[in-house]
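Bug #2210: token dump truncated for Endolytic murein transglycosylase?
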Amino acid sequence: MKDLEKKQRYVYLAAFMMLLFIVFVRGGARIKMSHDTLRKPATSESDVIVFLVTADDTLDTIAERLEGQGIVRSKKFFKKTMQRSTTQTIKPGNYFLDRSSTYEELANQLTNPENKVGREVDITFLPNDWAKDFAFKIGSIPNLKADDILASWSDPVYLKSLSKDYPFLTEAVFNPSLNVGLEGYFTPETYRFFTQTTVDAVTRRLLDQTLAFYQEHKALFESQKLSIHEIYTLASIINFETENFDDMKRVSGVFYNRLQSEMPLQSSVSVCYALYEYETWQQCESNTDIDSKFNTYQHLGLPIGPVMNPSQNALLAAMEPERHQYYYFVGDMKHHDVYFAETLPEHEYNVETYVDPYR
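Reproduced locally. Full output below:
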């Protein structure tokens, strides 16, 4: 009897030890798998970004941001790698980092002076510049090509990633009929770019300026009957017609009057954009029958998207139009004055008096 009880105790003990062994092995395997995963690069494909290190940064803050921006999987492993693999410190500056790099490679990228972003260049974008004009000017930066830039600005996958950070980019920018998805969402002014940069960094630099204006006037945007995309579209037409702020507000009032009366906007600047390639202003005025969703002579309401990149004044004019009874206007191309009329006969008189003599 005692021998039987003794054998049973041995069996129970052996079973218990086996259970502990299984738990230990599985737990160790999980820990190893977890560690192996965390040691891997953040992505399997190359994804180069510009990472800023400030004079106030420490290894802890750098590691924190690297993990937060998805450049490394573990800030802890990055810190250990830095402490183990190099005695150099990370100097302030902008660095090119590749999310597909190992911890050792990232440590080298952040301590290699040759990997720092180089000098800066100023590029000025003018009112009435189209997205392709922006891309052409940005294409002067080494390693960036205008065609690649334009392609990315209409790439649905890229636009989707941008829309997460820029709330003014709505579903409307995904319309495949648009010439460029981001047309209209760049603010024309002077920007400073690094000469060693990426399409994403340049694009976000432009959109950050738009975001700042949007956030400053968010309440005004939200008070409008027009959607955000429609506001940018209307502002682009207004800005294409005139650059004087008072005239912008008056022109805006004309377009609102015509929209409410279900009259076509009949803006020749929309024909210019529908043509997309033209040499003289007369070509825009003589092709009002062109079949295009941008052509406001052939289609009621606003075009399907902006026809240029409007200034901040044009956006304000689109949201705060002057109230009046004008339904017509014409611009004097020589003196850049704008003449308004309530009736068609008055408008025809303005055309004959102020425009025809200079055609």
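Output looks complete on our side. The chain has three domains: 1-39, 48-117, 131-324. Marking as cannot-reproduce; reopen if the truncation happens again.
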